[in-house]
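ok, trying the design again with the full structure, not the truncated one.
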């Protein structure tokens, strides 16, 4: 059996239909390269990359941040890139729900960090943080926070504003005291404070009535709060 040629078949269609088909075959402009950073953010990011120290993989971190911004991803992993700082423009990644910054050399976080207000899981395990920016208190959706193995000696009173926390790790830091406001974290189910320098715990700890796991291994505790029996 002889089949008609493609050319003869196409001739059966109205010219307007053929025009539509031809247009649909053209590359979509929406697939063109997108440069989501503002000129100011781009300049800041380039300067941040140029200022990289030995072993810092800032260019790779910037590449991942740009992909995340282009695709409006909810997760960003910058694990193990040995970066010592973060550019302020990371706070443009407002859709983020999960951010993994573990195993780097971060000594601080941007003052604007609180703009990432949708984050619910934040991993800062194994860095060199000594403090947290005040804007951190604006992370109102934060549920899981891992600050294990940093250099934090004190937590501010505003720490109690992180009211959605249910899993908190402060192990392997330099804490000598916990703020009374920790009792405001009434949703906490698990907390690790092991291997710190805590000789006492606040009475407000007894307000954490949903607590299921309290890891207090290797603490120089000399007494327990009276409210401990309420747990």
């Amino acid at each position: 059996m002889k089949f008609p040629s493609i050319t003869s078949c196409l001739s059966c269609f109205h010219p307007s239909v053929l025009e539509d088909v031809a247009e649909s075959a053209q590359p979509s402009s929406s697939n063109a390269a997108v440069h989501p950073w503002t000129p100011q953010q781009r300049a800041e990011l380039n300067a941040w990359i140029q200022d990289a120290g030995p072993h810092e993989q800032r260019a790779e971190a910037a590449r991942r941040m740009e992909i995340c911004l282009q695709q409006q991803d909810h997760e960003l992993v910058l694990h193990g890139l040995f970066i010592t700082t973060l550019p302020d423009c990371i706070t443009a990644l407002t859709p983020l729900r999960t951010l993994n910054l573990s195993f780097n050399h971060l000594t601080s976080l941007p003052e604007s960090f609180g703009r990432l207000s949708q984050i619910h899981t934040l991993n800062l395990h194994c860095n060199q943080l000594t403090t947290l920016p005040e804007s951190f208190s604006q992370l109102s959706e934060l549920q899981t926070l891992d600050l294990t193995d940093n250099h934090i000696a004190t937590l501010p009173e505003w720490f109690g504003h992180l009211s959605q926390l249910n899993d908190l790790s402060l192990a392997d830091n330099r804490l000598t005291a916990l703020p009374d406001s920790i009792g405001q974290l009434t949703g906490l189910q698990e907390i690790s404070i092991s291997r710190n320098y805590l000789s006492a715990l606040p009475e407000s700890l007894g307000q954490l009535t949903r607590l299921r796991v309290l890891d207090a291994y290797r603490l120089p505790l000399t007494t327990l709060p009276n409210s401990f029996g309420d747990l």
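Keeping the full-length input from now on. The radius of gyration is 26 Å.
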